[in-house]
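Here is one chain, start to finish.
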Amino acid sequence: VARFLELAHRLVRETSGLLVIAKKRSALTRLHGLFREGGIGKRYLALVKGRWLNPLQHVRLPLHKYLTDEGERRVSVSEAGKQAHSIIRLVTRWENFSLVEVELKTGRTHQIRVHLAHLGFPLAGDDKYGDFSFNKKLQKAGLKRMFLHAAKLSLPHPLTGAAVTLESGLPDDLSGFMARLDANETRNHG
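Its structure:
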């Protein structure tokens, strides 16, 4: 039994998928450095509202963190913000939805959600930056949370340096929702 277990990074509460946990303090310190320096490849699957057309798109939009009057943390695209870079690849497209893979080159707070919403493609089920009336329809159709999944991490092992690739398939609730889309909407690959 490991005596030391510590989370090396965080995900937004509703995000499913991969988390990295260190079993030694030395590994944790190295992992924190890798995350900070961009030494870990991070890819997410996101279902968005709308028909994403570009097979590959680099999104470089600076992000600014602020607090709402109610004290809630929010992020917006702003020249006053920090540089943020996402690479978005089209996976599958339906009539009213698109499944995209988002590769993070930087790891800013809410980066995927804000970049996609700013471009007019809000995440399905996103209660902060999404399309709220659309989300209500999605809830009735069976999507009970935001459709964002940490699907793949690539990193050097923190102690040995050996290349490590971790992958996580979509959980049942998200794959089940996609199956319902397939049954109800026309699907176009790429």
